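Hello, quick one for you while I still have it in my head. Could you read through the record and tell me how the C-alpha coordinates relate to the sequence? No rush at all, and the record is pasted right below.
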Amino acid sequence: MQHLIHRVLRFFVLTLAAGLFVACSAPSTNPAVNSPDQFAWQRFMEVSRPIPGDPQGRVAWEGWALAREVFADPNATPDWDTLVAAPRTLEQLDPMPLQQMAAHPEDAPVAAFDPALSPFGVNETRMNRATFDFIVANNLWYIEGQEALFASGHPIVFPVEAMEVKAQWRPVTPDQAPLYHTTTLTTADGQVHIFGLTALHITTKDLPNWFWATWEHKANPDRETVIPSRDRAGLPVQLKGTVWENYVLRGSQIDFVDSTGRPTILANSQIEEGFEATSSCITCHARATIGKRDPTLGGAADRLDIFASVAPLLGSTGAPNPDWFYTLSNGTVTPKYAQTDFVWSLLRAGRRNP
Protein backbone atom coordinates (compact mmCIF):
# COMPACT_ATOMS: atom_id res chain seq x y z
CA MET A 1 0.00 0.00 0.00
CA GLN A 2 2.80 2.41 0.89
CA HIS A 3 4.48 1.57 -2.42
CA LEU A 4 1.26 2.36 -4.30
CA ILE A 5 0.86 5.69 -2.50
CA HIS A 6 4.47 6.54 -3.38
CA ARG A 7 3.85 5.77 -7.06
CA VAL A 8 0.68 7.92 -7.09
CA LEU A 9 2.46 10.85 -5.46
CA ARG A 10 5.38 10.52 -7.88
CA PHE A 11 2.98 10.51 -10.83
CA PHE A 12 1.22 13.61 -9.46
CA VAL A 13 4.51 15.49 -8.98
CA LEU A 14 5.74 14.60 -12.49
CA THR A 15 2.41 15.60 -14.03
CA LEU A 16 2.44 18.91 -12.19
CA ALA A 17 6.02 19.56 -13.25
CA ALA A 18 5.17 18.78 -16.87
CA GLY A 19 2.23 21.16 -16.71
CA LEU A 20 4.42 23.91 -15.33
CA PHE A 21 6.95 23.29 -18.11
CA VAL A 22 4.27 23.54 -20.75
CA ALA A 23 2.93 26.72 -19.18
CA CYS A 24 6.38 28.28 -19.03
CA SER A 25 7.15 27.23 -22.59
CA ALA A 26 3.87 28.46 -24.06
CA PRO A 27 4.02 31.35 -26.53
CA SER A 28 3.87 34.78 -24.96
CA THR A 29 0.36 36.19 -24.78
CA ASN A 30 1.75 39.72 -25.18
CA PRO A 31 4.90 39.55 -27.32
CA ALA A 32 5.17 43.33 -27.67
CA VAL A 33 5.79 43.49 -23.91
CA ASN A 34 7.48 40.16 -23.17
CA SER A 35 9.61 39.79 -26.34
CA PRO A 36 9.85 43.32 -27.74
CA ASP A 37 12.87 42.78 -29.98
CA GLN A 38 11.38 39.66 -31.53
CA PHE A 39 8.09 41.51 -31.95
CA ALA A 40 9.96 44.40 -33.59
CA TRP A 41 11.42 42.07 -36.22
CA GLN A 42 7.98 40.57 -36.78
CA ARG A 43 6.54 44.00 -37.53
CA PHE A 44 9.60 44.82 -39.66
CA MET A 45 8.98 41.79 -41.86
CA GLU A 46 5.30 42.64 -42.19
CA VAL A 47 5.81 46.22 -43.34
CA SER A 48 8.83 45.33 -45.51
CA ARG A 49 7.18 42.62 -47.57
CA PRO A 50 7.30 43.38 -51.31
CA ILE A 51 4.25 44.91 -52.97
CA PRO A 52 3.22 42.22 -55.49
CA GLY A 53 4.01 43.22 -59.06
CA ASP A 54 5.24 46.69 -58.12
CA PRO A 55 7.48 47.95 -60.96
CA GLN A 56 9.52 50.07 -58.56
CA GLY A 57 10.28 47.18 -56.21
CA ARG A 58 8.62 48.94 -53.30
CA VAL A 59 7.68 47.28 -50.03
CA ALA A 60 4.43 47.58 -48.06
CA TRP A 61 5.17 50.76 -46.10
CA GLU A 62 6.21 52.58 -49.27
CA GLY A 63 2.62 52.16 -50.46
CA TRP A 64 1.25 54.06 -47.47
CA ALA A 65 0.27 57.73 -47.44
CA LEU A 66 3.06 60.27 -47.17
CA ALA A 67 2.40 62.33 -44.03
CA ARG A 68 3.59 65.55 -45.63
CA GLU A 69 0.90 65.21 -48.32
CA VAL A 70 -1.87 64.20 -45.89
CA PHE A 71 -1.58 67.63 -44.25
CA ALA A 72 -0.68 69.57 -47.41
CA ASP A 73 -4.02 71.38 -47.82
CA PRO A 74 -6.12 72.17 -44.72
CA ASN A 75 -9.07 73.12 -46.94
CA ALA A 76 -9.27 69.86 -48.88
CA THR A 77 -10.09 66.47 -47.37
CA PRO A 78 -7.17 64.17 -48.14
CA ASP A 79 -7.98 61.16 -50.30
CA TRP A 80 -6.18 57.88 -49.67
CA ASP A 81 -6.31 56.57 -53.24
CA THR A 82 -4.94 59.81 -54.64
CA LEU A 83 -2.12 59.96 -52.13
CA VAL A 84 -0.92 56.38 -52.50
CA ALA A 85 -1.07 56.57 -56.30
CA ALA A 86 1.28 59.56 -56.40
CA PRO A 87 4.90 58.71 -57.29
CA ARG A 88 7.64 59.50 -54.80
CA THR A 89 9.42 62.71 -55.78
CA LEU A 90 12.35 64.52 -54.26
CA GLU A 91 10.22 67.64 -53.72
CA GLN A 92 7.79 65.67 -51.52
CA LEU A 93 10.47 64.51 -49.10
CA ASP A 94 11.86 66.34 -46.10
CA PRO A 95 15.47 67.54 -46.12
CA MET A 96 15.78 66.32 -42.53
CA PRO A 97 13.64 64.58 -39.90
CA LEU A 98 10.61 66.54 -38.69
CA GLN A 99 12.03 67.14 -35.23
CA GLN A 100 15.24 68.51 -36.72
CA MET A 101 13.29 70.90 -38.96
CA ALA A 102 11.37 72.14 -35.92
CA ALA A 103 14.62 72.74 -34.03
CA HIS A 104 16.47 74.28 -36.99
CA PRO A 105 13.86 75.82 -39.30
CA GLU A 106 16.50 77.99 -40.94
CA ASP A 107 18.14 74.83 -42.33
CA ALA A 108 14.95 73.21 -43.56
CA PRO A 109 14.45 74.83 -47.02
CA VAL A 110 16.38 73.19 -49.83
CA ALA A 111 16.67 75.32 -52.94
CA ALA A 112 18.64 72.87 -55.08
CA PHE A 113 19.46 69.31 -54.05
CA ASP A 114 23.05 68.20 -54.49
CA PRO A 115 23.71 64.54 -53.57
CA ALA A 116 27.39 65.25 -53.07
CA LEU A 117 26.53 67.81 -50.38
CA SER A 118 23.84 65.71 -48.66
CA PRO A 119 25.56 62.97 -46.65
CA PHE A 120 22.47 62.38 -44.55
CA GLY A 121 20.03 62.38 -47.45
CA VAL A 122 16.30 62.95 -47.22
CA ASN A 123 13.56 61.86 -44.86
CA GLU A 124 9.94 60.76 -45.12
CA THR A 125 7.13 59.71 -42.78
CA ARG A 126 4.32 57.44 -43.96
CA MET A 127 1.14 56.27 -42.24
CA ASN A 128 -0.96 53.18 -42.84
CA ARG A 129 -4.65 53.22 -43.74
CA ALA A 130 -5.88 52.92 -40.12
CA THR A 131 -3.87 55.98 -39.09
CA PHE A 132 -5.03 57.94 -42.13
CA ASP A 133 -8.69 57.05 -41.68
CA PHE A 134 -8.63 58.14 -38.03
CA ILE A 135 -7.11 61.49 -38.93
CA VAL A 136 -9.71 62.14 -41.61
CA ALA A 137 -12.67 60.89 -39.56
CA ASN A 138 -11.75 63.19 -36.67
CA ASN A 139 -10.84 66.29 -38.73
CA LEU A 140 -7.25 66.19 -37.55
CA TRP A 141 -5.68 67.15 -40.88
CA TYR A 142 -6.20 70.87 -40.10
CA ILE A 143 -5.46 72.87 -36.96
CA GLU A 144 -9.02 73.96 -36.19
CA GLY A 145 -10.10 70.32 -36.09
CA GLN A 146 -7.36 69.53 -33.59
CA GLU A 147 -8.28 72.56 -31.48
CA ALA A 148 -11.92 71.45 -31.49
CA LEU A 149 -10.93 68.11 -29.97
CA PHE A 150 -8.92 69.92 -27.30
CA ALA A 151 -11.98 72.02 -26.47
CA SER A 152 -14.22 68.94 -26.33
CA GLY A 153 -12.09 67.30 -23.66
CA HIS A 154 -12.28 63.97 -25.47
CA PRO A 155 -8.95 62.13 -25.64
CA ILE A 156 -7.37 61.44 -29.02
CA VAL A 157 -6.84 57.67 -29.21
CA PHE A 158 -5.74 56.06 -32.46
CA PRO A 159 -6.97 52.52 -33.26
CA VAL A 160 -4.77 49.53 -32.39
CA GLU A 161 -4.15 48.94 -36.11
CA ALA A 162 -2.44 52.33 -36.50
CA MET A 163 1.18 52.38 -37.69
CA GLU A 164 3.71 54.93 -38.89
CA VAL A 165 7.20 54.64 -40.33
CA LYS A 166 9.94 57.22 -40.62
CA ALA A 167 12.59 56.50 -43.23
CA GLN A 168 15.87 58.16 -44.10
CA TRP A 169 17.55 57.84 -47.50
CA ARG A 170 21.07 58.65 -48.68
CA PRO A 171 22.53 58.74 -52.20
CA VAL A 172 24.49 55.56 -52.96
CA THR A 173 26.62 54.49 -55.90
CA PRO A 174 25.59 51.69 -58.28
CA ASP A 175 28.25 49.49 -56.65
CA GLN A 176 26.75 50.10 -53.19
CA ALA A 177 23.12 49.73 -54.28
CA PRO A 178 22.89 45.89 -53.98
CA LEU A 179 23.57 46.21 -50.25
CA TYR A 180 20.62 48.59 -49.68
CA HIS A 181 16.91 48.71 -50.13
CA THR A 182 16.81 51.43 -52.78
CA THR A 183 14.65 53.93 -54.58
CA THR A 184 15.39 56.32 -57.44
CA LEU A 185 14.77 60.07 -57.29
CA THR A 186 15.15 62.70 -59.98
CA THR A 187 16.75 66.06 -59.24
CA ALA A 188 15.61 69.36 -60.73
CA ASP A 189 18.19 69.08 -63.52
CA GLY A 190 16.66 65.78 -64.66
CA GLN A 191 19.37 63.50 -63.30
CA VAL A 192 18.26 60.21 -61.74
CA HIS A 193 20.00 59.23 -58.51
CA ILE A 194 19.92 56.00 -56.53
CA PHE A 195 19.05 56.41 -52.86
CA GLY A 196 19.67 53.72 -50.27
CA LEU A 197 17.59 53.29 -47.12
CA THR A 198 19.87 54.09 -44.19
CA ALA A 199 17.44 54.27 -41.26
CA LEU A 200 13.90 53.21 -40.40
CA HIS A 201 11.64 53.89 -37.42
CA ILE A 202 8.52 51.76 -36.97
CA THR A 203 5.82 52.77 -34.47
CA THR A 204 2.66 50.78 -33.90
CA LYS A 205 -0.37 51.13 -31.63
CA ASP A 206 0.03 47.57 -30.35
CA LEU A 207 0.47 49.10 -26.90
CA PRO A 208 -1.53 52.00 -25.38
CA ASN A 209 1.57 54.22 -25.45
CA TRP A 210 2.65 52.74 -28.80
CA PHE A 211 5.45 50.31 -29.61
CA TRP A 212 8.73 51.84 -30.78
CA ALA A 213 11.60 50.27 -32.74
CA THR A 214 14.37 51.55 -34.99
CA TRP A 215 16.82 50.08 -37.52
CA GLU A 216 19.96 51.27 -39.29
CA HIS A 217 22.04 50.06 -42.19
CA LYS A 218 25.14 48.35 -40.87
CA ALA A 219 27.39 50.60 -43.00
CA ASN A 220 26.22 53.82 -41.33
CA PRO A 221 29.27 55.68 -40.02
CA ASP A 222 29.41 56.08 -36.24
CA ARG A 223 26.30 53.91 -35.90
CA GLU A 224 27.13 52.87 -32.33
CA THR A 225 29.43 55.67 -31.26
CA VAL A 226 26.89 57.10 -28.80
CA ILE A 227 24.34 54.35 -28.15
CA PRO A 228 25.07 50.61 -28.62
CA SER A 229 22.56 48.41 -30.40
CA ARG A 230 20.29 46.23 -28.25
CA ASP A 231 18.77 43.20 -29.97
CA ARG A 232 17.94 40.15 -27.88
CA ALA A 233 16.27 38.37 -30.78
CA GLY A 234 18.70 38.69 -33.67
CA LEU A 235 18.08 38.69 -37.41
CA PRO A 236 15.15 36.40 -38.30
CA VAL A 237 16.16 33.42 -40.39
CA GLN A 238 13.62 34.48 -43.03
CA LEU A 239 15.71 37.58 -43.79
CA LYS A 240 19.05 35.85 -44.21
CA GLY A 241 20.25 36.03 -47.77
CA THR A 242 18.11 39.12 -48.47
CA VAL A 243 19.04 42.78 -48.58
CA TRP A 244 17.49 43.13 -45.12
CA GLU A 245 20.35 41.19 -43.49
CA ASN A 246 22.32 44.42 -43.88
CA TYR A 247 20.03 46.20 -41.41
CA VAL A 248 20.54 46.21 -37.64
CA LEU A 249 17.86 46.55 -34.98
CA ARG A 250 19.14 49.35 -32.79
CA GLY A 251 16.55 48.67 -30.12
CA SER A 252 12.90 48.69 -29.13
CA GLN A 253 11.03 50.67 -26.49
CA ILE A 254 7.80 50.00 -24.59
CA ASP A 255 7.95 52.26 -21.53
CA PHE A 256 9.26 55.59 -20.30
CA VAL A 257 11.43 54.03 -17.57
CA ASP A 258 12.84 50.63 -16.66
CA SER A 259 11.88 48.63 -13.58
CA THR A 260 14.23 50.72 -11.42
CA GLY A 261 12.87 54.04 -12.61
CA ARG A 262 15.76 54.94 -14.91
CA PRO A 263 14.72 56.63 -18.19
CA THR A 264 14.82 54.37 -21.24
CA ILE A 265 16.71 55.56 -24.31
CA LEU A 266 16.09 54.72 -27.96
CA ALA A 267 18.10 56.46 -30.65
CA ASN A 268 19.07 56.21 -34.30
CA SER A 269 22.35 57.80 -35.34
CA GLN A 270 20.75 59.10 -38.53
CA ILE A 271 17.31 60.27 -37.45
CA GLU A 272 18.33 61.45 -33.95
CA GLU A 273 21.73 62.73 -35.01
CA GLY A 274 22.91 65.34 -32.53
CA PHE A 275 20.89 64.28 -29.50
CA GLU A 276 21.16 60.49 -29.33
CA ALA A 277 22.19 60.45 -25.68
CA THR A 278 18.93 62.17 -24.69
CA SER A 279 16.65 60.50 -27.22
CA SER A 280 13.57 58.73 -25.92
CA CYS A 281 11.01 58.19 -28.66
CA ILE A 282 8.17 57.48 -26.26
CA THR A 283 8.83 60.54 -24.06
CA CYS A 284 9.37 62.88 -26.98
CA HIS A 285 6.14 61.76 -28.64
CA ALA A 286 4.25 62.13 -25.36
CA ARG A 287 4.81 65.85 -25.91
CA ALA A 288 2.88 65.76 -29.22
CA THR A 289 0.03 68.06 -28.23
CA ILE A 290 -2.55 70.66 -29.18
CA GLY A 291 -3.86 73.55 -27.09
CA LYS A 292 -6.51 76.19 -27.58
CA ARG A 293 -5.94 78.91 -30.13
CA ASP A 294 -3.56 81.61 -28.93
CA PRO A 295 -4.02 84.88 -30.86
CA THR A 296 -0.47 85.93 -30.03
CA LEU A 297 0.83 83.07 -32.18
CA GLY A 298 -0.86 84.30 -35.33
CA GLY A 299 -1.95 81.32 -37.38
CA ALA A 300 0.32 78.82 -35.64
CA ALA A 301 -1.02 76.17 -33.28
CA ASP A 302 -0.15 76.22 -29.59
CA ARG A 303 1.81 73.07 -28.81
CA LEU A 304 4.55 71.83 -26.53
CA ASP A 305 8.00 72.09 -28.09
CA ILE A 306 9.56 68.89 -29.38
CA PHE A 307 12.83 69.42 -27.54
CA ALA A 308 13.58 70.21 -23.92
CA SER A 309 16.30 72.53 -25.24
CA VAL A 310 17.64 73.46 -28.67
CA ALA A 311 20.85 75.08 -27.44
CA PRO A 312 22.23 72.60 -26.64
CA LEU A 313 19.95 70.14 -28.42
CA LEU A 314 18.37 67.97 -25.73
CA GLY A 315 15.47 65.53 -25.90
CA SER A 316 13.02 64.74 -23.13
CA THR A 317 13.50 61.45 -21.30
CA GLY A 318 11.76 59.55 -18.54
CA ALA A 319 8.16 59.83 -17.41
CA PRO A 320 6.14 62.80 -18.73
CA ASN A 321 5.70 65.76 -16.40
CA PRO A 322 2.03 66.45 -15.57
CA ASP A 323 2.89 70.16 -15.55
CA TRP A 324 3.30 69.89 -19.32
CA PHE A 325 -0.42 69.27 -19.69
CA TYR A 326 -2.23 70.82 -16.69
CA THR A 327 -2.19 73.73 -14.28
CA LEU A 328 -3.31 73.25 -10.70
CA SER A 329 -4.74 76.22 -8.79
CA ASN A 330 -6.71 76.01 -5.54
CA GLY A 331 -7.45 72.37 -6.19
CA THR A 332 -8.75 73.04 -9.71
CA VAL A 333 -7.08 71.23 -12.60
CA THR A 334 -7.11 73.17 -15.87
CA PRO A 335 -5.92 71.51 -19.11
CA LYS A 336 -3.19 73.37 -21.01
CA TYR A 337 -2.58 70.85 -23.77
CA ALA A 338 -4.22 67.67 -25.03
CA GLN A 339 -1.97 64.87 -26.19
CA THR A 340 -2.36 63.89 -29.83
CA ASP A 341 -1.72 60.26 -28.87
CA PHE A 342 2.03 60.37 -29.49
CA VAL A 343 1.60 61.34 -33.16
CA TRP A 344 3.91 64.23 -34.07
CA SER A 345 2.73 64.08 -37.69
CA LEU A 346 -0.21 66.28 -36.67
CA LEU A 347 2.32 69.07 -36.24
CA ARG A 348 2.32 69.33 -40.05
CA ALA A 349 -1.30 70.54 -40.15
CA GLY A 350 -2.12 74.03 -41.39
CA ARG A 351 -4.88 76.42 -40.41
CA ARG A 352 -7.96 76.77 -42.62
CA ASN A 353 -8.46 80.41 -41.72
CA PRO A 354 -5.07 81.86 -40.80
